């Protein structure tokens, strides 16, 4: 990351902020008139959102090609699961329609709320793993892209 261009660092900053807003607004960590929350946020919601946002921003920045890079990147996109888990981990357990449909309001408080910190740990681990995997791919030897093809001559004799 020390060799990253300002363009990549800018992409990381913008992506981190966008990720934080995309998660914080609908989960009502940022108070808006559109979304509400029945259960107040936990003490760890903001710190964990900040960590996830930073990791997600750095991960997005690995997809910003440096000027010397060309062609598509064959590595997969592995961080989306971590981002999705962060959304469920910091959200209100009884405000989430999927959780309510699956568990009901009593189940959301009894079963889902205690699991939310574990979801966040898994989310951070997945984001960190995806970032590490992407950065390891950048450090590996690059394949030359502009190497002329060799011609093979066949001898008719």
Topology of helices and strands:
Blueprint: H1 6-24, H2 45-61, H3 80-90, H4 97-139
Helix pairs in contact: 1-2, 2-3, 2-4, 3-4
Keywords: Membrane, Transmembrane, Transmembrane helix
Protein name: Integral membrane protein
Organism: Nocardioides cremeus
Provide key terms for this protein.
mainly alpha, transmembrane helix, membrane, transmembrane, Integral membrane protein, 0% strand, 157 residues
Instruction: Quickly give the structural class.
Output: mainly alpha
Outline the biggest β-sheet: none
Provide a count of the helices: 4
N- to C-terminal distance: 56 Å
Global geometry:
elongated
Low-confidence stretches: 70-76
What is Rg?
22 Å
Beta-strand content estimate: under 5%
Count of distinct structural domains: 1
Considering DSSP H and I runs of 4 or more, what fraction of the residues is helical? 55-70%
Number of strands: 0
How much is the average pLDDT?
82
* Secondary-structure element string: HHHH
Organism: Nocardioides cremeus
Transmembrane segments: 43-66, 78-103, 115-131
Protein name: Integral membrane protein
Keywords: Membrane, Transmembrane, Transmembrane helix
